[in-house]
Amino acid sequence: MTQPLSDQTIALVKATVPALEAHGLDIVHEMYSRMFQNPDIRDLFNQSHHGDAGSQPRALTGAILAYASNIENLGALAPAVERIAQKHVGLQILPEHYPHVAEALLGAIKAVLGDAATDEILAAWGEAYWFLANILIAREDRVYTAQKDATGGWNGWRDFRVERVVRESSVINSYILSPVDGGPVMAHKPGQYLTFWFEIPGHPPVKRNYSISAAPNGETYRISVKREPQGLASGWLHDEAKQGTILKVAAPAGEFFLADRSERPVVLLSGGVGLTPMVAMLEALVEDGADVPVHYVHGTHDRQTHAMRDHVRATAARGKAVKVIDFHQTPLADEVEGRDYDAAGIITDEWLVANTPVNEATYYICGPRPFLRHAVSTLSLAGVPSDRIHYEFFGPADELLAA
């Protein structure tokens, strides 16, 4: 069991909060510069999120500050710790990688803060780092073991073949994947993702997470990927992946998933390509014969960007109490309300509160950050408790050690 942090360490780490507020981003950039000198460590990270304009350095800066500010109340960070552990498992981060991060972090603190980073301060941060690292290592070991022991489960990278490519919209393709070895595949929890290792000519190895967009079936996975502007991995998939393409895949992971069934209504709320985990959840609810009310609410630009609409409606029609509402923000000139979409414009807070059972429902939300932020805020202000609001967002995670 990890030893509790000493009172002296807690006091010293909290004392560095003002310095982190002032110089945290410089420390993180220096930390990444040091780590990336080792190609094996560099390749664990999503390079598109790093650099001077990258989002990951800002996210990690905020996460380190949050850790320091809550060092005496780490229970508040428990959900973030689980997110980190799940992402680390997807990226195949192992115990032997942690010393490299520790060395880079402590070296960066010393390099940026200079004489202010006394031996006492560095020792305190070393203790604090390894306290969190040991918690993560233990949790990740349990996840790796569960993956290995599951029927169809595996550790490391497994080869999957693209069996079929489906054009879902003007910007989204689905890829049906089956294991090259012909064995079964681990049953994921609807909402979880797969991590992919792409070897794209002219680039270092690229790792990306894509939500599984189908319920478990023991034989295949489906991912549905939006072509992102300047997106290296998504562009390669859209341009190069075809029937027969082999992809390296890590076992399903992620802390955002459909919880154990209850008597509560379920609201699946998504924006854009955020529908991918929602489709998996909807399929699972229908296949399980759930008789609770299910509200599937989705917003997108127009008919051309609306992925999987017919599939969703066909799936909903097999359910016992499923209601589908589609919003098109800017319908095309020839679109007809009631045929191509249900409501024009965006999903407003007024509509959400008035048309979903806020007093009873469990909400699952996925989409771009502004969409997610607005939806969570609206539901919280409407009195929905946090344990009934579950969400997933795109981009780098806002927590310590996220890769």
UniProtKB/TrEMBL annotation:
Annotated ranges, domain FAD-binding FR-type: 155-259
Cofactors (names): FAD; heme b
GO biological process, one term: response to toxic substance
Gene3D superfamilies according to UniProt: Globins (1.10.490.10), Nucleotide-binding domain of ferredoxin-NADP reductase (FNR) module (3.40.50.80), Translation factors (2.40.30.10)
Catalytic activity: 2 nitric oxide + NADH + 2 O2 = 2 nitrate + NAD(+) + H(+); 2 nitric oxide + NADPH + 2 O2 = 2 nitrate + NADP(+) + H(+)
Globin domain ranges (all copies): 4-141
EC code: 1.14.12.17
Signal peptide residue numbers: none
Enzyme class: oxidoreductase
Membership in a protein family: Belongs to the globin family. Two-domain flavohemoproteins subfamily.
Function noted in UniProt: Is involved in NO detoxification in an aerobic process, termed nitric oxide dioxygenase (NOD) reaction that utilizes O(2) and NAD(P)H to convert NO to nitrate, which protects the bacterium from various noxious nitrogen compounds. Therefore, plays a central role in the inducible response to nitrosative stress.
Name of this chain's protein: Flavohemoprotein
Gene name, Swiss-Prot/TrEMBL: hmp
